[in-house]
Inverse folding.
């Protein structure tokens, strides 16, 4: 589980680790992304809202509560576990433990059968457990970044990881749509064939299989990280690491005034990052409710967003190394605010809130209405902006956090993201239920983007 030291030529190219170690680290994003693409956004979440929950509005509210519960657990525990990991040294044992949660949670989603006993609870608990596993594993994997490349190449490393992750999400989505998920009317998949493994469209077996598929995908593709990417040496046993980590975290929190710049960034990230996550989490549910999209339309929408996000992450990583991560995030957030308002202005009968358009005609084919096409176009723009926001945000944290407490601060980074991971989705759920409007529920997320961008302007983009 270790690799040889980097040669002088590798160091001159910005690498502290071998190409194989860096490539294996990048594969973690490839392994993890199908959980977000298939389960959180484009297949299982809309299926849950449309066919497991009582109504789409109730489904969006319940999904918000489950996302919020998972976010609260992550918010409370991630800095603590990060501090313990810094004290113990090794990160891979933590990644392995939380990987198990991701896999078990994903496998359980198969049992969320429409109309089945406890199907709602199975879906929500399985999703929350898998999400907790994915997010915690990401905390410890992110903390490996400064040991792999120098500061001048963190942007490219982060952007490449996000881009590879998006490609993984795209490939997994194409596979699931092409071979697993079938139209209930025709019984055929996107490729025009019957679902494999005897998956029955009548009980949405293909949609339910997206959870186990994402779990198996992760288990397979996370292996290179454990085999090739070097870990920090173990410095203390578990009991000493717990005591030392908690003491260190207490001291760090007490001394955050000495890291005021990092604290300000964490606050800004708290506001905008999970607004983005929630927007993606509810985008598919929103489209399913207002347009009546099935898994096929939602999957094609997901393919579009994944392609544009991949391009955005690659370009954003290059812009990050050239101009720095802060300008990349600020500009992308400004454009994202405009795009978010624009996508909320679209429904089956209107564009721009007030301009009436013809709804789709029966038998008109995929994305036949003007509203649907506008939704697709604006969604593609949001995908392109999401890549730079996510990759440059991770790069900025790696640049400004104290190097000797990097996992602990990435735990705080996860905390900053997950405080609004329960507040944001909870707000969506409450407003949706109160107003009985999916649009009203989603609109509250724009506030998070505006406030986060405003605070980010005051952050100094260098370690002090």
């Amino acid at each position: 589980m270790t690799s040889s030291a980097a040669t002088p030529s590798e160091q001159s190219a910005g690498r502290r680790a071998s190409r194989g170690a860096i490539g294996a680290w990048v594969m973690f994003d490839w392994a993890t992304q199908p959980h977000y693409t298939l389960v959180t956004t484009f297949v299982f979440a809309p299926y849950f809202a449309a066919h497991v929950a009582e109504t789409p509005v109730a489904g969006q509210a319940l999904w918000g509560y489950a996302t919020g519960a998972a976010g609260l657990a992550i918010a409370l525990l991630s800095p603590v576990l990060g501090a313990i990991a810094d004290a113990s040294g090794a990160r891979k044992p933590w990644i392995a433990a939380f990987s198990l949660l991701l896999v078990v949670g994903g496998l359980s989603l198969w049992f969320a059968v429409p109309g089945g006993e406890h199907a709602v609870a199975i879906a929500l608990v399985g999703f929350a457990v898998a999400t907790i596993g994915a997010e915690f594993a990401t905390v410890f994997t992110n903390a490996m970044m400064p040991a792999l490349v120098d500061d001048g190449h963190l942007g490219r490393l982060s952007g490449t990881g996000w881009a590879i992750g998006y490609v993984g999400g795209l490939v997994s989505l194409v596979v699931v749509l092409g071979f697993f998920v079938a139209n209930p009317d025709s019984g055929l998949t996107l490729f025009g064939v019957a679902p494999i493994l005897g998956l029955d469209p009548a009980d949405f077996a293909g949609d339910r299989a997206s959870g186990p598929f994402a779990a198996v995908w992760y288990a397979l593709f996370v292996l290179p990280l454990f085999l090739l990417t070097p870990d920090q040496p173990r410095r203390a046993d578990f009991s000493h690491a717990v005591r030392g980590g908690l003491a260190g975290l207490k001291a760090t929190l007490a001394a955050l005034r000495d890291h005021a710049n990092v604290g300000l960034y964490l606050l800004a990230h708290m506001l905008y990052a999970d607004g983005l996550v929630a927007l993606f989490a509810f985008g598919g549910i929103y489209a399913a409710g207002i347009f009546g999209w099935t898994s096929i339309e939602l999957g094609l929408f997901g393919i579009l967003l994944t392609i544009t996000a991949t391009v955005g992450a690659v370009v954003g990583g290059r812009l990050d190394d050239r101009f720095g991560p802060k300008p990349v995030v600020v500009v992308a957030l400004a454009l994202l605010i405009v795009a978010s308002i624009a996508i909320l202005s679209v429904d089956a009968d209107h564009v721009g809130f007030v301009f009436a358009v013809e709804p789709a005609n029966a038998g008109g084919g995929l994305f036949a209405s003007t509203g649907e096409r506008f939704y697709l176009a604006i969604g593609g723009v949001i995908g392109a902006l999401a890549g730079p926001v996510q990759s440059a945000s991770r790069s900025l944290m790696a640049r400004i956090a104290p190097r000797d407490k990097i996992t602990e601060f990435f735990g705080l980074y996860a905390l900053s993201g997950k405080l609004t991971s329960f507040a944001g989705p909870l707000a969506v759920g409450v407003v949706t239920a109160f107003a009985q409007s999916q649009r009203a529920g989603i609109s509250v997320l724009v506030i998070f983007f505006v406030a986060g961008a405003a605070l980010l302007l005051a952050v100094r983009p260098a370690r002090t």
User: Anything to note?
Assistant: The first helix runs from residue 8 to 12. The CA atoms of residues 249 and 296 lie 47 Å apart.
